[in-house]
Amino acid sequence: TTTTMMNADLQKERAAATFQTELLTHILDGGAERTRRRKEIEALVINDPDFQHENLAFLSRSERYGLAIKKSALMVMKLREYGIADPDEIYWFKSYVHHGMPEPLDLHLGMFLPTLLTQATPEQQDRFFMPAWNLEIIGTYAQTEMGHGTHLRGLETTATYDPATQEFILNSPTVTSIKWWPGGLGKTSNHAIVLAQLYTQGQCKGLHAFLVPIRQLGTHEPLPGITVGDIGPKFGYEEMDNGYLKMDNFRIPRENMLMKYAQVEPDGTYVKPPSDKLTYGTMVFIRSLIVGDSARFLARACTIAIRYSAVRHQSELKPGEPEPQILDYQTQQYKLFPLLATSYAFHFVGAYIKDTYRRISGDINQGDLSELPELHALSAGLKAFTSWAANAGIEECRMACGGHGYSRCSGIPDIYVTFTPCCTYEGENTVMMLQTARFLVKGYNQVCSGQQVTGTVSYLNDLSTQHILPQHVAARSVTVRLNDPLSLVEAYKARAARLVEAAAKNLQVELNNRRSKEDAWNRTSVDLVRASDAHCHYVVLKLFTAKLSEISNAAVRAVLTDLCLLYALYGISKNTGDFLQAGILTDAQITQVNQRVKELLAVIRRNAVALVDSFDFHDVHLGSVLGRYDGNVYENMFEWAKKSPLNKTEVHESFHKHLKPMQAKL
Amino acid sequence: TVNPDLASERQMASFSVEKLTAWLDGGAEQTRLRRAVVEAIEGDPVFSRENQYFQSQNERYEAAVRKAVHLQKKMKEMGWSENGPELKYIHRAVAGDIAFLLHRVFMRSISVLGSDEQIAKWIPLATQFQLIGSYAQTELGHGTYLQGLETTAVFDAATQEFILNTPKISAMKWWPGDMGRSATHTVVFAQLYVHGKCYGIHPFIVQIRSLQDHSLCPGIIAGDIGPKMNFEHIDNGYLMLQNVRIPRENMLNKFCEVQPDGTYITRGSEKINYFTMTSVRISIISSEAVMPLMKACTIAIRYSAVRRQSKLKPGEQEAKILDYQTQQEKLLPQLAAAYAFYFIDEYLQELFDRGYREIQRKNFDTLPELHALSSGFKALVTHYCTAGVEICLRACGGHGYSLLSGLPSLYTKIIASCIYEGENTILLLQTARFLIKSFMAASTGQSVPPSVTYLAAVKPSKCPAKSKMDFLHPDIYMEAYRHVAVRLISSTAVKLQDLIQSGVKKHEAWNRCTVQLAQAAKAHCHYITVKNFAEVVEKLEGKAGIQKIMKHLSDLFALHGIFSNTGVFLYDGYISRAQMDMVTASYLDLLATIRKDAVPLVDAFDFTDKSLNSALGSYDGQVYQRLYEWAQKSPTNKQINPAYEKYLKPLLHNTLSKL
Fold first, then answer.
1. Contact (Cβ atoms closer than 8 angstroms) between residue A258 and residue A193
2. What does the UniProt entry say about where the protein is found (chain B) (predicted)?
3. Which of A59, B118, B265, B550 makes an SS bond possible with B114, Cβ 3.0 to 4.6 Å?
4. Which of B515, B575, B644 to mutate to test the interface with A (most CBs of A within 10 A)?
């Protein structure tokens, strides 16, 4: 903060924009009123001295954990003090407090409390909910084990019912059954909802949830029979005490099994739950959050890389002229602008899933689950598709900042390590893609057997007509209009249809060769993932395109249309093989696509800075010296570096300990 | 005891691991020497990396200094010399986890750029560690584009000194290793001014810290640039110079000199500078890119043979994740790439040695080709290996994210290689410049360097493959790669010409073609990698056991490249749509074939458990036990964290509201 003037380059960029940045911000927020409210909450947090602290890059893991706990405690108090209860507003508040980083109470607030609400009986809620709400009980959700993650049926922890004492006996029978990874488990929580295989009357009844106290209230010491601790340092997630939990003949009362649906009666009789689809709801909700996070994290990285590229000058384009902004190089635009377009695309997809979930979850409570399978299948694939793309995109943004991107002052390393695990948690991405594929193949088989399918897969209905008209696919190739998003949606649709069909046919060939179902599936899984990927790509483009018509301001619509076209055409240029092989596009059209992509880069160049300004990240939230709004990069890098722990003393102790003695000896 | 799931993999091996290891090392004698050196280093507790994942930046730095100092002692003790055959194995064993790497660069730059007198003065001091050197080139505002550096060195004839200055903040030296805390001297690159005239960038030896008490010299502001994604053990530094005066003799003057009266003279050829850059780029390919990918493959493949998840057949035991096609499709192409690039490194070394001999005979003809190849391959290999390490990390599920897996550190380190020693995109464009020039020369019948003669030869324009088996013939896939490289280079050259003829200025035309140019450069390097792998396999004739599996890997590397870039091969119909289905089929078959030898193929890399430093990748496969044991060593489980008393307790007792 040595300079208060805005960097001249950024000033010029902002003046050149063809649209008003606030209008686009309103669209992203879902209305001007929501933008106003978001900024109000942002100001509440950012101007609050309680939430101000040293740059996280200079703190040790232990210090970061301590700081996060402090901020989380204050956050809970203040949310109640301010009366903030709307889920979106809580989300905003939390992400401003923690700068978008995870925190030790995440699992308590995000999983423990909601699970109590959805799976506990009224009696159980009476016992546990208020203490948990008041943070006397801090809980976590212990599902993943050392040996099993996404494949839940393989979990090994056991809960054996003992009718004599009316207790469950919990055990971690093997090393692999030790609960591993749950956030907040290592140091913070005194309770855990533990997922275990239920045994009663000598039979295994599958996975059920149990409320298990793990630490003594008051002393916070682990209870006898409980071994609990932190799993050690990770790639990021420094604030989070991801933990392990081992249970040895640990007894809990019968009433501690969450029994809103399934029940064990005092004599050990097991009562089945009415439907096992109920657990889908939470999964869909969390996946919708991840899609939104993919958009936001990528948007942060784009903001940093694009502003920095407007400030950084390097080399020469024209002999004898001053060094140009690196944003003027075609290769730099080619790295960054498709990612900018992707952030916008994913933003609209995240909003769509969330809205759809809200609509359907109304139905869930009324017992209408008919739309759930599709949303479940779609959200799995989109979670994988968007998180993979954002993950790679964040890294691309970091590398586009050259050496300085590698410094933690750029903020991108922390954005990356915070984001990247979501490719794995809440369902490993490849497994997620295969879940979507299962749904697609099912739809294909239905169509083949003469039924109609609905929803996002309805394009599969057309496949039957294409079989009658073999020329059909080739005939439509000439009709793809490269400047028309709707026409490009059709091209992506045709690609998805062809890849779903190819995968389904290959699967059938394997089955005809008398492979077992599982074996045939495995031998086709690379094809199946490709099919899912193409389906998700189509859905994303379709949703982006649909958004364009909703935008009333002509200038904003124009710039978003450019981005949408870039998203679509860049996607084709990166997957030309699929479009060529399916006969959707010709060689000549592919050449045009590649040419058009470069033209669009030049068009978007003018609005690039304004487009990232519209994401409206506050400097404190962005956490980047390279991405500062005012663009005063170099002087602030120097200020930042001076605070580095290695600079605390002018002569480091290792000079006296090691260097000097060596010089004396040699 | 070895986990039975790994033991069974080893029993299935179709070849002798020990033989493959010896062949990779260049003979059994080399293997023996390597193992002896690695053992001597790893057996020494000072070099232990046991608690590395738990250390702070300050602790890592101190350990690196301690190790560097100890290594000097160790080398004397063991009788290892600076130029001995052991050196590369020492590097392999310490794996960069040591201070004073820039001290070597400091010495090398004096040896290359300094006069005989300068060498005689500085090298002995540096060898004895009477001073510690660094190499200060990069500035806050400028990296790969050296002409843009802003530090100044103005000659003052009155005092026979140069006055060095950092005229603005962006001119601050930024990033040089060992400079933040350790170095006493550094080679500073600055714009030379004599009598008001600028002569461009020159190297100057500048003392920055006292040799007595290590405090900063007058006019010097220096320090550590702060935390990075990795390299916590290296004190990358900043340096600001304020009217720092150094004697005239401190400008490294083998090639140019400022005489006492200010006359500027040049002598000899500066082309040798390019040669230094070339040698550095080639040297990082193996140690900084290929080795880390080999390690990542070792960890991920062994873990995938131990990890069981979900069922492939109902009623059976859960399957090894290595048996899933999607897992094979992630890991096995990375394994093939590790081998492919291991061989490319050998190819480049050989080319380099030949070039070096020529240069010593004052023949600089091979330089442009060497420069182009070293730039292009530095970019291709670091990019590919970085992506490969990340794939390995992500293929290990949640446990991959634990630092104890070893993968995050491999990743955060290898990614830096995409930027340092030349940013990859810029390097690709340098290669492209050479390719366009060569293409123009070839098309007008002039002779071109050996690596680009293929640009001139005319071959059939359709792929002749008739069945999926045909795609296992190296001639078929090499030709496909060649075809694509020629097409991308020639079409870009034509476009460039067209633009210029239509009146677009040359530099503007170049910028408008850079996306395609970079793609063309990659295609060229990819083609050479595929071709070189096939040639290596061919030379293995007689080593039947090894040749077969190497052939599979060569095929896999080639077909994976086609499978993941179908568009460029389908475009213009070189490979037809039906043929592309054959490629896919052959490719997927190969995955299943190589699957059987996957563990032996990583065993052959012969990394010790200590060098992998991974709870997931150890030779015995006791993954879960080790993960649990290592986690318990974490300071978070040993030290009392003040957070409980300070924040948690009041929170749990609900007293925070009183704060």
1. yes
2. Peroxisome
3. B118
4. B515
Q: Find the angle CA(B506)-CA(B512)-CA(B516) to the nearest 5 degrees.
A: 115
Q: What is the CA radius of gyration of chain B?
A: 27
The answer to whether residue B225 is domain-embedded is yes
Task: Decide the pairing of beta strands A191-200 and A203-213.
Answer: antiparallel
Average pLDDT for chain A: 92
Range of the domain at B252: 131-267
Q: How many CB atoms lie within 10 A of CB A124?
A: 18
Annotated binding site of B for FAD: 138, 177
**Three-class DSSP category at B206:** strand
CB pair distance less than 8 Å for B400 and A657:
no
Whether B643 shows a pLDDT value over 80: the answer reads: no
Percentage of chain B modeled with pLDDT above 70: 98
The position carrying tokens 């004052």 is: B362
**Whether B566 and A178 lie within 8 Å, measured CB to CB:** no
- The residue with tokens 């009316």 is A166
Query: Annotated catalytic, A426?
Result: yes
Percent of chain B as helix, strand, coil, to the nearest 5: 60, 10, 30
- Secondary structure class of A252 (helix, strand, coil): strand
| pLDDT reported for residue A204 | 97
Q: What is the mean pLDDT of residues A503-525?
A: 94
Q: What are phi and psi of A162, to 5 degrees?
A: -115, 100
Q: Which pLDDT value is given to residue B644?
A: 78
Shortest distance, CA A647 to any CA of chain B (angstroms): 6
Does B437 reside within a domain? no
Query: Which of residues 132 through 161 in chain A touch B, CB cutoff 8 A?
Result: 134-136, 138, 144, 146-151, 153-154
CB-based contact A646 B223, cutoff 8 Å: yes
The residue type found at A213 is: P
pLDDT digits (tens, 9 = 90+) for B51-70: 899 998 889 999 999 999 99
Residue B421 forms part of a structural domain: no
Q: Is B8 on the interface with A (CB under 8 A)?
A: no
Residue from B150, B390, B421, B479 carrying the catalytic annotation: B421
Alpha helices of A408-484 — where are they, by DSSP H?
412-419, 429-448, 460-468, 472-477
Between β-strands A263-264 and A179-180, what pairing exists: parallel, antiparallel or unpaired? unpaired
Contacts for B111 with CB less than 8 Å, ≥ 6 apart: B119, B123
CB atoms within 10 A of CB A175: 19
The reported pLDDT for the residue numbered A471 is 42
Pairing relationship of beta strands B220-224 and B237-241 according to DSSP bridges: antiparallel
Q: Whats the size of chain A, residue-wise?
A: 666
DSSP labels, B220-236: EEEEE---BSS-TTS--
Residue A287 has pLDDT above 60, yes or no: yes
Q: Using CB atoms within 10 A of its CB, is residue B197 exposed (0-12), middle (13-18) or buried (19+)?
A: exposed
Going along chain A from its start, the domains and CATH numbers come out as: 137-273 (2.40.110.10), 284-450+486-615 (1.20.140.10)
What distances in angstroms separate CA A156 from CA A179, A185, A249, one per listed residue? 10, 18, 14
| B residues 558..577 contacting A (CB < 8 A) | 565-573, 577
Distance, in Å, from the CA atom of A258 to the CA atom of A193, rounded to the nearest integer, reads 9
C-alpha angle B441/B341/B604, rounded to 5°?
A: 155
Q: How confident is the model at residue A365 (pLDDT cuts 50, 70, 90)?
A: low
**Residue A443 labelled as part of a binding site:** no
**Exposure string for B80-108, b = 16+ CB within 10 A, e = fewer:** beeeeebeebbbbbbbbbbbbbbbebbbb
Q: Are B142 and B178 in contact (CB under 8 A)?
A: no
Flag whether B146 is in a domain.
yes
Structural domain count, chain B: 1
Model ipTM?
0.94
Cβ distance B54 to A233 less than 8 Å, yes or no, reads yes
Reported as a single tens digit per residue, the pLDDT across B436-476 is 999 999 999 999 999 999 998 777 689 999 999 999 999 99
Give me the residues paired with residue B188 across strands: B136, B204
